[in-house]
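Notes from hallway chat w/ T.B., transcribed later so I don't forget. T.B. wanted the structure written out for a chain they're using in a teaching module, and asked if we could keep both sequence and structure tokens in one place. Agreed to drop them here.
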Amino acid sequence: MPDISMRFHKDMLVLEGGTATMLASQGVSGDDCPELLNALEPETIENNHLLFKMAGAHCAISNTFGGSKHALSAFGLDDKAAELNREGVRLARVNSPEHILANIGPCGIMVDSLSGDSYEAAFEQYREQAAALAAEKPDAIYIETMMCIEDAICAVSAAKSACELPVLVSCTFDDEGNMVGCGTSIEDAAEALERAGASVIGMNHLLDFEQMIPNARRLCSATTLPTLVSPDVFDLSDLGKVERRNAIDKVARCAEAYREMGVQFIGACCNTTPAYIGAIYATVGGLDVVERA
């Protein structure tokens, strides 16, 4: 496939769903380290990527969300950070997806704009992780679930310093359009991240597909960059087939609404399975991006 940046503003691109949800359904405890599975159970990670690809995902997302040294230190694995990150990208490549997004989540160091020490510490965490991921030649760095604007800017800047790959960044907003960890508005966040060098700006987590629509519309009006959404779905574990079918239908309807407002990348976050990705692909996969005013 061509360089992913050559597809910006052109092709609708569907992302994989939630890694943690898939692993939980396979018996992986929330207390376990998902990134360690890249070394101990690579076939599990490979198979999850395959299931999402079969559902229609264009973009595989590496199992490296918590791959910073600081995050891995909670499991005594900080000395394995480079290895686990690189293996995560390798596993994402096994099934030959159209594109590989090397995933970075919050490193866990709270960045205080008034404290140079915390910024520098977090910057080094993100820079080292991005460098390890970039060594395996993914198509882009995908920073997600950023809850404070200072942390998001730090991560984008660090990734840009570590490699020349496009950087996608996705933040978490509440239903009033403010970042949940700092209160920064969608408009201010978009402006700041554009200045920091982001290639794509998005939002993920906390809100479901319908709830995120007003925020996505504001984002599409706030930036000329490609935009991304990856909402949650409600926990449907106790619901029957009819309720599940209705939920999947709603995801499909919302995916079309996102496309109509100009969103290019559509995925799904917590509580999602390949069935939801399949509904997104069936609705918008293969279509062109709608040009924004």
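Follow-up for T.B.: The domain at 4-284 is CATH 3.20.20.330 (TIM Barrel). Might be a good example for the class.
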